[in-house]
Amino acid sequence: MKLLRLTVNGDPVELGVRDEETLLQVLRERLGLTGTKQGCDLGDCGSCTVLLDGEPVLSCLVLAATVEGRSVETIEGVAGADGLHPVQEAFDEVGAVQCGFCTPGMVLASKALLEKDPRPSRSEIRRALSGNLCRCTGYVKIVDAVERAGKAYPA
Amino acid sequence: MKREPRRWVGRPLRRLDGATKLRGDALFTDDLRLPGMLVGKMLRSPHAHARILSIDTANAEALAGVKAVAVGEEMPVRYGILPRAEDETALAVGKVRYVGEPVAAVAAIDEATALAALDLIDVRYDPLPAIFDPREAMTREDVKIHAETKVANIERQASLLFGDVEGGFAAADHVREDTFFKAAATHAPIETHAALAQYSGGKLTLWSSTQVPHYLHRALAKVLELPMERIRVIKPFLGGGFGGKGEPFSLEFVASHLARKTGRPVKIVHTREEVFLSHRGRHPMHMTVKLGVKADGTITALHFRNILDGGCYGSYGLVTLYYSGQLLTCPYVIPAYRFDGFRVHTNKPPSGAQRGHGGVSPRYAIDVQLDRVAEDLGIDPLEIRLRNAVQPDSVTVNDLRITSCAFSECLEQVGSAISWKERRGKLPRGRGVGMAGGCYLSGAGKAIYFNPMPHSSVRITADRGGGVTVFSGAADIGQGSDTMLAVVAAETLGIAPSMVTVVSADTDTTPVDLGTYSSRVTFMAGNACLEAATQLRDVLLAAVAEELEVHVDTLEIRDGVIDGPGIDADPLTFADAIVLAESRGGPVNGVGGYTPPELGGSYRGAGVGPSAAYSFSAHAAEVEVDLETGHVEVVRLIASHDLGVALNPLAAEGQVEGGASMGLGETLMEDYEVLEGGQLACPSLLEYRIPTAVDLPDLETILVESVDPEGPYGAKECGEGSVHPTIPAVVNAVYDAVGVWLHEVPISPETILALMKKDQTRRVAPRGATRP
Amino acid sequence: MMPLPTFRLERPATLVEALRCLSETPGSLPVAGGTDLLVSMKHGLFDPPVLVNLSGIEELRRTNLAPGNVELGAGVRLATLRDDPELRRGHAALAEAAGVVASPLLQNMGTLGGNLCLDTRCRYYNQSAFWRNSRGYCLKRGGTICQAAPAAKRCFAVSSCDTAPALTALGAQVRLARWEDGALGLRELPLEQFYVEDGIERVTLRPAELVSAVLLPVTPGTRSGFRKYRVRDSIDYPLASVAAALRVEDGVLRGVRVAVGALASAPLLAVETMALLEGQPPDPALLAEAAELVTKGSKPVKNQASSPTYRRHMARVMCRRLLADLVA
Ligand SMILES: Cc1cc2nc3c(=O)[nH]c(=O)nc-3n(C[C@H](O)[C@H](O)[C@H](O)COP(=O)(O)OP(=O)(O)OC[C@H]3O[C@@H](n4cnc5c(N)ncnc54)[C@H](O)[C@@H]3O)c2cc1C
Ligand code: SF4
Ligand code: FES
Ligand code: FES
């Protein structure tokens, strides 16, 4: 058991975690943040993507006790009180969401990309999202959405 | 055919549930939590074929934190999606037939305890010889996977004969026969199967990731021996199905049973490996195609033989078997047709229905064979397709009724998009273009169990604030059927889709829809919704007409406002109309139902294949083949789809793109291989490779509208037919690029290299017509 | 989910502390990015009593790109290597290799040290406990035969780390650290000596020893590159890979080093290829001939996707193309 202090979606959180608990388990099972999905639990699918200090990582392969003091952003923290984030808005507008299971991970990976480079090429977008599997869309509209969302960022 | 201008139909529309999903608020089954909830886990067979001698659960039951253990004998009633093939039990009884078959289950206070308990269950097996090749299984009388099969392990043989096949071949100028193999594929939805059961007050509630709440409802009643009115099935948000959640699964019965046994809610979530073991994906097919044509390419006869590897249970297999034969008489006119098929049991996880059910692999074989024949005769592949293309308002040789059909236009559109005439056969070696066609039904004409009721029913209620709620049993599995219902209701009622709430897939509150399979939902639930909304509109307008003392036919609802003579001054809103109607006699609502017309022939097997409408599709692919490595890159894929009318083009394009991407995955990399011994070669999303974002081109979609006379606002299917032409389009493009024909899919660079080498050594021989 | 077995997690802040933790409990294992080890633990392949987390150790994340001597801490993430403009220029093979490990997400997590110490891989080994129990165990874990080559007495599990062949071609050394008689013991080894061509033994690490850094020689004018064959262009492990480094001086090739990955239980130095090219003008025919020799000495068995023959073929094609690119 470890006492863990971290920031989740901007809020300070303090809780006891078992040494072998993953960040994904803690988010979903302890904090009730079920927006982060589990599609394989082995690092193969990307549905569990969260931002750790702004970088997209797979929470199913992060030991919770190792993120002491760090900042985690999950899908629940992306939209503001005044509405969807530009990435979410673009996904919605162009039809990049079907079943929605890959969506949280896709949105977070896209957001991290655009924060570094708001004008990525289509192939750069594809590369950045290539660890996030989507079985529904064939990715076309997801790439469209990221391209469009980038325009909302200052170049 | 041109369609009428509409207010909402045909406009790109956001999904009803888009924002919810994007915010992470959408609750999928695994996201649900109930007080006192237990975790359920299943123990699975390590043997491919074995008798169960004994199961000792005492140690597991004694473990602290274990609340219940279940074994097969507690639920011996057999089930199966097809009433004619009810051959499964929730947990194995007496015998196991594949590696991974569930044998026992536990419910415990947490996952770790449940897993520890599984280790304490002692199962004794007597291993039996196992068979993994259907061709071997067809003759092995000594190894019976099911005692009931009459001949070896042949579950079912199907033979169909239409027209004068012998005469057709005799009249042909060229006859060509080849064999093809398409490996198994699996659905691989990103959400794994999950079920949460609660049993309280004598009533079972099951939340499950199911595509078929109604069939599940029936199966639960049967297996758990509970009356249907004491069972409620709810489908929460669902993370992709593609057929993989299209029938009742072991975990649903087991969670329910354990909940009843413990009195506490029980949740079972499959690991990714368990999803692969549950399977029900594409049958491996060993196919032989004999095709006869006239010198001008007109088809005279087709003989198709198919051996389907069914794995060890029935699943949808009988339907797959018939689909694999029945759907080949379209989209090319086949005047004489013979089909001989076998579905055979092997000791593998059951094959079942996957997106494009039954037709995908045969389509590969036929559309490649058509190119081969065209090549033999020196006819352009586009030309031979146009020459044989099925036409609207016709009947196929096996009595399928074709109404709306824009197949020729689909072909022409992809042809011009890829500059076919200028490029086919004219690109530098290594680069090539290819094409293929396809068709698919808009919902099966028959329900899975015989019954006289509608296949889909919808109820719409109106509230005083002007909103309406659509109640439908249809399961939105990500394809967007909820949004489709809202569009149909909004269009019909003259209000904005944002005024429509959809409540769906809850057997307590929504009228029955048979489920999300065979591309039936838009057509059937859409029609039911159209009827219900029309009824509601009529009730509202009747009330307004009475109030204003005008004839009802003079009134209409447009953008939420009633329009007609006598209401120019003070606008009368939709909400006002509801208040008027409600004041006249209680709450207003509309109901509607859809039953497909009686269609099809009267021969054995005639029930599989008929549909009220067929979609048509054509794909053109451009590939780059690396001459040294054999690696194939699909540079472009253009998919045209005759979907009648695009109710929501965004959703429709998404379906076509998704279908084509699954087709590309199956062409290039997906192989659900079972090792000798019965273990899966690829039981993970690492080894079972579905395409990543960098493995696919920007798929290009062309929606073609033929306005179906019976579809809701002219719409028909688009989610499954879009898989059909992909494989042969790519295989045909590879031929154009490097001159080799691929008779096995997934295609392998290694095979391409080997064939290219062989081709070079015999290139001296002239290519041309041969008459075997 | 696939829950992890229980263990005690140590979170040392210094290298010395980490080494002491490791030496205190036999069987304890270091974990860096966790992207290999945690997967294997979920599969029941390891059940260590203690995991020593290296990600909090500042000194392991240090990099020193001083001219003439590049030192990379074992804790540096692959994404950092991939994006570093200095490395991309001077040691392209490494940056390219880091950029094709798994997927960009995993590159954000995985470390250089973890990559170098990646367990060897095999279709019969990297499976769940259920799967291996059904199939039967093998030499590498719990069994007495090799499932892939039952006649063999050894394990052919594949060295699948992408940075190792790149670093081998670049002539890198690893610095190893251990806690010995109350003091920090350091040693440096060329990468070729760090690996053992055996699927089970695989590295020459002693118990409780860590890779602390990678040292790279800097030879002006060196060009290097990395090529990888896999089915999907992301996520997948390599089925074959080739790395090469060379200089063109006065019209001839100098300092040629070529290594192949994923064709054996260790990265292999392609000595015959190197010997043929050294001191010769970069003539395309010679490059092609040299590339044909690159798979000499590798005899992979069928324990991955794709056939051994084809994987070797791919290595030769990739080698020829890579050499051609480097001399262009
Ligand atoms: C889906 C998937 C795909 C992958 N594809 C690839 C791929 O294509 N190519 C590839 O190379 N890898 C691949 N990997 C493996 C892995 O992500 C990388 O190799 C990564 O670099 C491992 O680093 P890590 O820090 O995460 O290692 P860890 O998992 O933390 O450690 C790996 C091993 O090294 C040991 N170790 C870690 N640090 C040290 C140290 N400093 N000294 C001594 N021992 C140490 C650990 O005890 C463990 O045995 C893949 C992984 C996944 C999940
Ligand atoms: S190569 Fe043989 S011994 Fe080694 S992991 Fe594979 S099966 Fe086991
Ligand atoms: S759940 Fe983490 S990568 Fe699949
Ligand atoms: S939208 Fe379903 S997996 Fe991506």
Can you walk through the features of this model?
The complex is a heterotrimer of chains A (155), B (772) and C (328). Chain A has helices at 23-30, 86-94, 103-116, 122-128, 140-150, and strands spanning 2-8, 11-17, 49-52, 55-58, 71-73. Chain A is an alpha+beta fold. Chain A has two domains: 2-77, Ubiquitin-like (UB roll) (Roll), CATH 3.10.20.30; 86-150, Orthogonal Bundle (DNA polymerase, domain 1), CATH 1.10.150. In chain A, strand 3 and strand 4 form a beta hairpin. The radius of gyration of chain A is 15 Å and the shape is globular. Chain B is α+β, with helices and mostly antiparallel strands and 772 residues long. Chain B has three domains: 18-25 and 454-594, Aldehyde oxidase/xanthine dehydrogenase, molybdopterin binding domain (Aldehyde Oxidoreductase, domain 4); 32-128 and 190-240 and 245-278, Aldehyde oxidase/xanthine dehydrogenase, a/b hammerhead (Aldehyde Oxidoreductase, domain 3); 360-446 and 605-761, Aldehyde oxidase/xanthine dehydrogenase, molybdopterin binding domain (Aldehyde Oxidoreductase, domain 4, 2-Layer Sandwich), CATH 3.30.365.10. Chain B contains 19 helices and 29 strands. The longest helix of chain B is centred in the C-terminal third of the chain and has 28 residues, at 521-548. Chain B is globular and about 85 Å long. In chain B, 65% of the residues are buried. Chain C has 328 residues and is of the alpha+beta class. Chain C is built from 13 helices and twelve strands. Chain C has helices spanning 15-24, 37-42, 78-83, 85-90, 92-98, 104-109, 112-116, 129-135, 163-169, 191-194, 271-277, 284-292, 308-327, and strands at 8-10, 29-31, 50-53, 63-64, 69-73, 173-180, 183-190, 209-217, 223-229, 240-249, 252-261, 268-269. In chain C, strands 4-5-8-6-7 form a five-stranded antiparallel β-sheet. In chain C, helix 11 (271-277) runs antiparallel to helix 12. Classes of the chains: A alpha+beta (155), B alpha+beta (772), C alpha+beta (328). At the A-C interface, strand 4 of A face helix 2 and helix 6 of C. Bound molecules: flavin-adenine dinucleotide, iron/sulfur cluster and FE2/S2 (inorganic) cluster (FES) (2 copies). One FE2/S2 (inorganic) cluster sits between chains A (97-103, 134-137) and B (190, 240, 478).
